[in-house]
Amino acid sequence: MATIERLTRHEFSEADKVFIDTCVLILLFNPLFDSGERPDSRAEDYSRAIRRLCLARSKVFVSYLVLSEYVNVYLSRAKRLVEVSEHILLTNQKAFRFKAAEHFREAAKEVTIYLGEILNLCSVVSAPPRRSWIENPLLLFKEGKMDFNDQLITQLCMENHYTLITDDSDFRNAELHILTENKRMLG
């Protein structure tokens, strides 16, 4: 069972090793906020906590998987904005790239800038090249207990003794130390 702590109350130190989940990156680096839409109130809580974490010189990590998820979610949201503003239907990312090429290039430039900011904040880690890294999560995935990517993140955090910063309640049953502002997880 997870040890869940309110992110805004955590006292960061140089000894902390934290892993940032995709949903937090989406709250912090979100194309919807640039469009004038009212931002999620949690974004400011996570942003302040990340500033405190940096001031404490804590070690901050993401994985290639999280970066890939972030780019896909970012482009998906940018695609939806284009569909609404241009009154068109883009069936997938490939259609977005070709039928709305100018908008796609603009979104790709934006996400590249945000990725640069993320990479300035975080070190990128990867899973060891062991077959068990895929097989163990597949077993749990087959049972429907947890999203496959979330299981890979859990395994990475457990092996490296990372504290997970997330807003995803799917992690509430993982055997991790979790920092969050998700009210459902905090009880």
Describe this structure in words.
The chain has 187 residues and is an alpha/beta fold. The protein has one domain (3-186): Rossmann fold (3-Layer(aba) Sandwich), CATH 3.40.50.1010. Helices cover 54% and strands 12% of the residues. It has helices at 22-28, 41-55, 64-86, 93-99, 101-121, 132-142, 148-160, 183-186; strands at residues 3-6, 17-20, 59-63, 123-125, 163-165, 177-180. Strands 1-6-5-2-3-4 form a 6-stranded parallel sheet, sandwiched between helices. α3 packs antiparallel against α5. The protein starts with a strand and ends with a helix.
Top keywords for this entry?
Rossmann fold; alpha/beta; 187 residues; single chain; globular
Order of helices and strands: EEHHEHHHEHHEEH
Number of helices: 8
Morphology call: globular
CATH domain fold name: Rossmann fold
Measured on Cα atoms, how large is the radius of gyration?
Answer: 17 Å
Strand content: 5-15%
List the helices and strands and how they pair.
Elements (H helix, E strand, L loop, with lengths): L2 E4 L10 E4 L1 H7 L12 H15 L3 E5 H23 L6 H7 L1 H21 L1 E3 L6 H11 L5 H13 L2 E3 L11 E4 L2 H4 L1
Helix pairs in contact: 1-3, 3-5, 4-5, 6-7
Concise description?
The protein is of the alpha/beta class and 187 residues long. The protein has 8 helices and 6 strands.
